[in-house]
Design goal:
Blueprint lengths: L10 H7 L11 H14 L8 E8 L5 E8 L6 E7 L13 H10 L3 E5 L11 H15 L1 H4 L1 E11 L1 H13 L10 E4 L10 H5 L8 H12 L24 E8 L3 H13 L4 E10 L9 H19 L1
Parallel strand pairs: 3-4, 3-5, 5-6, 6-7, 7-8
Antiparallel strand pairs: 1-2, 2-4
Helix pairs in contact: 3-10, 4-6
Length: 312
């Protein structure tokens, strides 16, 4: 691949980047979904001792929604995180982040909940947001039966899942329940306007480009493109006060980089506690490549933050 902008990639990521398949999100979405599911299955390496349950819950429209829980051995109420997978709002499933969720459950000693939210373009905004909000409400309602401490619930997500996590956290401020304790945002999508310098600069980066980003928003928003609000694009929220603490895990060479910095700065200005880490030489989704040193380090860092917020 010839890049118009020289990238000083982490050597291990540079070696992997040439093998990353191209996803045709415009003309062959079924094949892109097949590849995504195949890659997730190939990388599956179950951890011992984690109890996994699939549950069907009721959505607000009466249909059923699949939820997966991951739990370490424990007889007491544990903290929990609702973790939302990425995939440009168009790819992935409840199984996409199995390995990550197991690591969180084991090493942060918490219950992890994932969900099969509806995908665009068949189900444009606000379907995915509604699904995430419904699952969070279900977690609070069923905390006792799930063995969860309702005073220690966090939310997180990567890429498009980061957008859904941040928008669900915004909505949760108005819910008469214990507040969320943290937002864990990994390379999050946050701004549908796609107008930052990093969007314009990173036009040929591995995995994700500015053009991918524009297409993603077009397909996710559909007819709502002219009237999107913070439920789709968290950066459109006028008021960020009262949100839970947030941690950002940012790649250096990612079109999303600058919108993540913008949102983090706005959170800080609103009095929200923020941790932010940018990893040198990395690309979008880098922490998913846990065969690399930087991928393993990012996972350890995320778990360390989860342990801290759950103990606080």
């Amino acid at each position: 691949m010839t890049l118009s902008v020289p990238l000083r990639l982490d050597p291990e990521l540079a070696a992997i980047s040439v093998m990353i398949p191209e996803f045709d999100l415009l003309d062959d979405l079924p094949e892109a979904r097949r590849i995504e599911d195949e890659l997730a299955a190939q990388g599956r390496n179950p951890l011992d001792g984690i109890v996994i349950d699939d549950i069907r819950i009721q959505r607000r429209d009466g249909a059923r929604l699949r939820v997966r829980t991951y739990r370490p051995p424990s007889s007491r109420a544990l903290p929990a995180i609702l973790y939302i997978h990425g995939g440009a709002f168009m790819l992935g499933s409840v199984a996409t982040e199995d390995e990550r969720c197991e690591f969180y459950a084991r090493d942060a000693n918490c219950v992890v909940i994932a969900l099969d939210y509806r995908l665009a373009p068949e189900h444009p905004f606000p379907a995915a947001f509604d699904d995430c909000a419904d699952v969070l409400d279900w977690i609070y309602r069923e905390a006792g039966s799930l063995g969860i401490d309702p005073r220690r619930i966090a939310i997180g997500g990567n890429s498009a899942g980061g957008a859904l996590a941040a928008s669900t956290a915004l909505a949760a401020r108005a819910i008469d329940r214990p507040p969320l304790v943290h937002q864990l945002l990994v390379n999050p999508v946050l701004d549908c306007r796609s107008r930052t310098p990093s969007i314009a600069r990173f036009t040929e980066t591995p995995v994700w480009t500015g053009a991918h980003n524009v297409l993603m928003w077009e397909r996710y928003l559909g007819a709502a493109a002219g009237s999107a609000d913070h439920r789709a694009s968290p950066s459109l929220a006028d008021d960020l006060a009262g949100l839970p603490s947030a941690s950002f895990w940012i790649a250096e060479f990612d079109p999303l980089r600058d919108e993540d910095y913008d949102y983090a700065l706005r959170l800080m200005a609103a009095g929200v506690q923020v941790d932010l880490t940018q990893y040198a030489g990395t690309i979008h989704g880098f922490d998913g490549y846990r065969m690399t040193g930087v991928g393993r380090r990012a996972m350890r860092d995320q778990i360390r933050v989860l342990r801290r917020v759950f103990q606080g």
